[in-house]
Amino acid sequence: MRNVLKEKSDAFEYKDVKDVEKHNVLWSRNPDIAKSVALRFALDKNAEVTAYTSNVAMDLVVRKEEMNAPVVYLHVTKAVGDADAIIGMIESFVDITVSNGGKVAVYIDKMCPYKLKYPKAE
Fold it and tell me: Residue 74 in contact with residue 106, Cβ under 8 Å?
């Protein structure tokens, strides 16, 4: 989790989220829940968490870069542009990561209007 918890302000309270092991992707608007899901994914896969912002994720999709991190924590913030296109690129990033064997925990900023097609962690 060191890639996610770079500063003291990134600390979180662990929340026990049910049925995490049944999913490859979960999202939340609560950062504690999203980080808890990332931690559970990392423990299940015995791997480090790679942190990405939505801007970096969209850039990777556009450049068709390889995405093979075993566990990803994706922080989604509002971007300038068509919301459907932005959601499509974020979902493409997630789908490619999962198809390469990864698991993704997504934190969608509270001020961000996006909703993803994946199950929500609560």
Answer: yes
pLDDT tens per residue, range 89-98: 999 999 999 9
Q: What are phi and psi of 75, to 5 degrees?
A: -100, 110
Q: By C-alpha distance, which of 122, 50, 35 is closest to 93? A: 50
Please tell me the distance from the alpha carbon of residue 87 to that of residue 83, in angstroms, as a whole number: 6
Distance CA 13, CA 91 (A): 27
pTM for the whole structure:
0.89
Report phi then psi at 104, rounded to 5.
-130, 125
Close Cβ partners of 104 (under 8 Å, ≥ 6 residues apart)? 24, 25, 26, 41, 71, 72, 73, 74, 94, 97, 98
In the chain the first and final C-alpha atoms are separated, in Å, by 20
